[in-house]
Amino acid sequence: MKLGAGPPRGSPRPRVQACVSLARMERNTRQRAAIRDAIAGARRPLLPQEVLEAAQQLAPGLGMATVYRNLKALVEEGELRAVHLPGENPRYEVGGEHHHHHHHFQCLQCQRVFDVHACPGNLAALAPPGFTVEDHDLTLYGRCGECQPAARARR
Amino acid sequence: MKLGAGPPRGSPRPRVQACVSLARMERNTRQRAAIRDAIAGARRPLLPQEVLEAAQQLAPGLGMATVYRNLKALVEEGELRAVHLPGENPRYEVGGEHHHHHHHFQCLQCQRVFDVHACPGNLAALAPPGFTVEDHDLTLYGRCGECQPAARARR
DNA sequence: TTACGTGCAAAGCGTTTGCAAGAGG
DNA sequence: CCTCTTGCAAACGCTTTGCACGTAA
To answer: Which residues 67-126 in chain A show a CB within 8 A of chain B?
Structure first.
């Protein structure tokens, strides 16, 4: 039962993009196009390994290092978004700057993830005194429309 | 800029504890006590590395492998809870089954994580129609009391 | 032509595991 | 005394990086 090392949880939370060490990736390469198309063509956030497999069909010989380098660059450019779910490796989906603040819903039965565009808002009051709230992440868990049990086994 | 491998994001969300392959750890060892005390004495979820450093003061010679083995066992026994924050390595805190529902706050400056005992509640309305909400995870981001900019460094 | 991007392989890092020595009961 | 637990080091798996070749512009 191996799990392996995780993703780069290193970088804490790049809320604001500093202008340092940006891997711009300005050239239009065959590999870069394949990676973008692979993600754009998926209906769900993809893991790096899934991106590799999908993009390799468009760009044979594509290597994992290139996938990681481009994912990182595309996220920095705002063309992609990293989707971090608790306890899960990061996935990647399309979503630019103009993509508004939203949250996610994960079905406890089918494990699929959905966007939730509603937001509870003003959560500043929840923090302890002396703390300043600047942002938040919210993940809802439950059952999606397709996984509603015949009866209802709420908790 | 290395980040390193991540934690075992493998298991999605162990809502219910299955009775398979439990690493019981039934003996009362000096190391096990040190690890439990280290976590119980902290006011926030600790990273494995932080647990090691704290527990080593109570049990010199303690190794990281023992920390991981005991963390895993204590979580399986329900004595500890793993705290998964988006894009972060897992942290560990006390909290059995009877431990009440709460959330977390991560300081964008010092990266430490604190418990938030408040809860916005009734988030069921946020989900799309036809979806059933059973639970949620909420993470607040901002600055903790000690990291308030110049102004006042409370607490 | 020339700097940037790619591929490969090796390094990094957090986590897990094999194995022999150590300790609880 | 016997088994479970520990500590060390190697193994693991995902991600990053060094370097030389390939290629967009």
So the answer is: 82, 84-90, 103, 105-106, 108, 111, 114, 116, 118-120, 123, 125-126
